[in-house]
Amino acid sequence: MDIAAAATVFTDPRAYADNERFHTATALLRRESPVHRVEHPNFNPFWAVTRHEDVMAISRASDIWINEPRPALGPKPKDADRENIPIRSLVQMDAPDHPVYRHVSADWFKPAGVRRLRDRIAELAKRFVDRMADQGGECDFFADIVSHYPLYVILSLLGLPEEDFPRMLRLTQELFGADDEDLARNQDKQAQMQTLIDFFNYFQALIQDRRANPTDDLGSVIANATIRDEQIGELEAAGYYTLIATAGHDTTSAALAGGLHALLESPGQWQRLVDDPSLVTTGVDEMIRWVSPVKQFMRTAREDTVVRGVELAAGESVLLSYPSANRDEDVFDNPNTFDVGRSPNRHVAFGFGAHYCLGTHLARLEGQALYAELVPRVRSIELAGTPEYMEALFVGGPKRLPIRYTMA
To answer: How many domains is the chain partitioned into structurally?
Structure first.
């Protein structure tokens, strides 16, 4: 593989479904061209940033590197349509708006706020491990178990009725899986926009209800938030809901499913968890590093600047490759080895800086609760077919993980 071929992984959704291809390519780029200009007829040009140090430095410098107008990589028509997107979330915001809007829900996701959910999360973890036990020794771990477990946590937090959970799961998969023929609504290029509109219409009704009948859930906090002495706008509130209701569960599901896949392909790692349950804590963080469900975010330079000796002009964009940064040989010993005891683990799967993931503590707690419940109850476990991964440029992980097992 030459450098030009390696750089194609960032614009090809299929590359993210082929872990060997992607990580071979990004290892080459880290060695030979860690800040690499990518030109493709279907995409506006950008610079791919593949080293951990550079991803951290750009993420830290939010005064120079901003999210607007291109917060994530998409084809040219998507870049052109951004002004027509009906909702605006934290992902699209920069200072001074971003910190103000982030503060609305920040306390709910701090360690103290998340600890209040510990019993509920443990109850849901047991509920879904029980569901796995009821499957008769075979299931699709992603589709049957972990695509639902974090969904129940986050949508319960928002206060959505349980009968709407399947709809939220379907819309999330259509949104993030728009490039995957198994998950996309259809092959129409406007399908993703229609999915966003469906989210907006659903959450607009929720906003009206929570304003008329406020409750003690996060949905009410957002709907009734005050921003600079005025009630939060409906577009911003709907954007807040959409971000939490999608990224708040889909990324965690991807990490937990991809983590089990890694365990089953890494001799001895499952047994290490059986022998030492305390390793679940570091093991879950290793799953998050290994899968890196958020594949990239974009940043655009406000001024002329330099990244690793490469001069970039104001207005040029960089792609921050989190999966590549999380395999950086300068930061991780044996980065291509899955190690449930890895410590320290300086992964950037949650991002860094001003846009550090709000749900970090919740995701870790969900993962720890699930595997603390699962590992002691499994007597044997193996793959029962070939796992398949999403074809997606932005957020992705397994879409099928067939397993065979016996449980106590």
So the answer is: 1
